[in-house]
From TrEMBL:
Gene3D superfamilies: 3.40.1350.10. The lineage of its organism: Bacteria, Pseudomonadati, Pseudomonadota, Gammaproteobacteria, Pseudomonadales. It comes from the Bacteria. It comes from Marinobacter salinexigens. Residues 25-77 form the PD(D/E)XK endonuclease domain. One of its GO terms (molecular function) is nucleic acid binding. This is PD(D/E)XK endonuclease domain-containing protein. InterPro entries: PD(D/E)XK_Endonuc, Restrct_endonuc-II-like, tRNA_endonuc-like_dom_sf.
Length: 131
């Protein structure tokens, strides 16, 4: 049985966890039939994923939060970057939200127009269809 011997620092662990959510979203989009592109670098463009069908491309930012409460405020971390959606994953619960990018400095996660999903592929795909 494999044994993980690496001891990660707290910042490294947070980075690995964040990347795991980006990969999870990419996997779920792929399972739903989307073409998924992952930028090699993500400096200043704030794009973690690009998903496409035959006619449309959507730039997506993936975030995770350390909260089981969906009434929290989330900050606009992309500012002037031209993204279409932000996907939030709760690290402490089994839900997430898909939100259109917003221009305010912060907004409640459960605001109107934000679509909640259960952290599983089919509910995620249904939520993206509604977003």
């Amino acid at each position: 049985m494999p044994i993980k011997n690496a001891q990660r620092t707290a910042p490294a662990y947070r980075h690995y966890k964040q990347i795991s959510y980006e990969n999870l979203a990419a996997s779920w989009f792929t399972a739903d039939g989307w073409e998924v592109f992952m930028p090699v670098t993500d400096h200043d463009r704030k794009t973690d994923l690009v998903v496409a069908d035959d006619n449309h491309y959507y730039r997506i930012q993936v975030k995770s939060l350390e909260s089981g409460d969906d009434n929290v405020f989330v900050e606009n971390k992309w500012r002037d970057a031209n993204i279409d959606y932000v996907i939030y994953f709760s690290r402490t619960s089994n839900w997430g939200y898909i939100t259109p990018a917003f221009s305010e400095a912060r907004r409640r996660l459960n605001s109107a127009g934000h679509v909640r999903f259960h952290q599983h592929q089919k509910p995620f795909a249904r939520a993206f269809d509604k977003a």
